Fold this protein.
Amino acid sequence: MDPYRTNKMTHAILEVLSNLLQAHVKDPRVGFVTLGGVKLNRDHSVAEVYFSVMGEGADPAQSLEGLKKARGFLQARLSKTLGMRTTPDLRFVYDESLVRGEVLDGLLNELKGKGEFLTEAEKRRQLCLDDLVPPAHLLTALRLARVVWVVPHHNPDPDAMGAALALGQALTAMGRQARVLAYPDPAVGLADLPGHREVLYSDKAPAAFTAEEPDTIVLVDCHRIDRTGPLEETLARCETRLAIDHHLVSGRRAPEPGWIEARACSTCTLIYQVISELAKGDLDAEDLSSESREYLNTEDLPLEDEVLEDLVPEDLDTEDEEGAGPEGDAPFEMTLDMATNLYAGLVNDTGGFRFDNTVPFTFELARRLSAMGVDTAKVASMTLHRYRRTGIELMQRVLATFQWYDQGRILVLHASRAMIEETGGSMTDTEGFVNIATAVDGVRFVVFLKENGDDIWRASLRAREGDVQQVAAKYGGGGHRAAAGCTIEGALADIIDDLVAQLAAMPRA
Ligand SMILES: [Mn+2]
């Protein structure tokens, strides 16, 4: 089957099943289930549905029983929703590692014949930049795209914006009609990134969507459209959506298909690998088939039809409605602008190479980008530790809210809408405040609450040791072990009590 069609179908099945589980399956055993991916066999008769279980009391065996019981219902609803004559036979497969990216880890270790006794940190230190390989289906989907929107998450940081701009520039270099989306009132520094002048702001997106009709959406630094705030509704109108992200998958809603690799220190690291692959250009269809055949002949392998079919996608040389042109994509060079945007993401997401996600391959990427001519000092001063005057005035007020709990191990701070009004600043000015709190001696957890609306607070959680992603996930949020976020409704004092109680109860290493 055509990889583009398989990709679309995989995505559709994952989305429908996730929604069905959430809305219609009341079995408590299924309550812990998160669907991580779907794999179709060649003729689409069987779909392996990978799931993991999260939360206290989660039991994979119990959850599998629950899923098996719901299978008939799910199968019927799936066929109805997708309007398919026959639906693939659903098989549920427990695979915690799918969510955590450990499948690849395991394979790599096997290939290297070592690593079984290494800790996570040691494994990450051994990883090379080029061990991070973009999945073929992602590259194919990007090549098949004609009108593409590249979209960072709401309230983008330099990693999200740098990733979006660099990928947009690469797709433009490939001759695609690419647009980079952004949100009004960008954080200080972002607007100076190369190419930011041409972004499409979210308030103009609905009209632009109608005019341009993007055929593909690529989310960067997030993996679900509900992280795009005001853009969610518009983006939902495009059914081919991809995600390139380094955040852990959490929550019940399925991620968009694409590349989610939590071992990467920044999304820009992943985008660098994607652009490097795209920049090689694409062999044309004729060449691919003749090369595969030649290879098979010289190697004296059995020329079974099945083997050939595997190597040569069936509709490669048939008519070509929306696929790559017959001549394929020409190679292109990664430009200094792309490299500068990628470096901005890399230097920011590692906190200027200070956070514990800084490993050898981080420096390898920094070395390559720097060798391309990126002005590293300029990018750092442009995007790291840069404040507007209103930002400093806001900081004075936020610093005054510091409250210590659990004998100084938990530090809570907040920024209210009143403070924003008094200073004439904006919430984007609070970017980086949480890092000040995290730097306080003896602090294990930081909770930074930002008022989003009446009794609605956005919580940024930080951990020097421990896993705040678990806590964020309980509120439907996500992130990494050391940094996560979620939105919570309620009175400020109640939210603080709740979060402090959960953090204080976390076992210590
Ligand atoms: Mn990031």
Remarks:
- The two ends are 49 Å apart (CA to CA).
- Residues 285-326 have pLDDT under 50 and may be disordered.
- Residues 60-82 form the longest helix (23 residues).
- The chain has four domains: 3-97, 101-131, 133-280+333-380, 389-504.
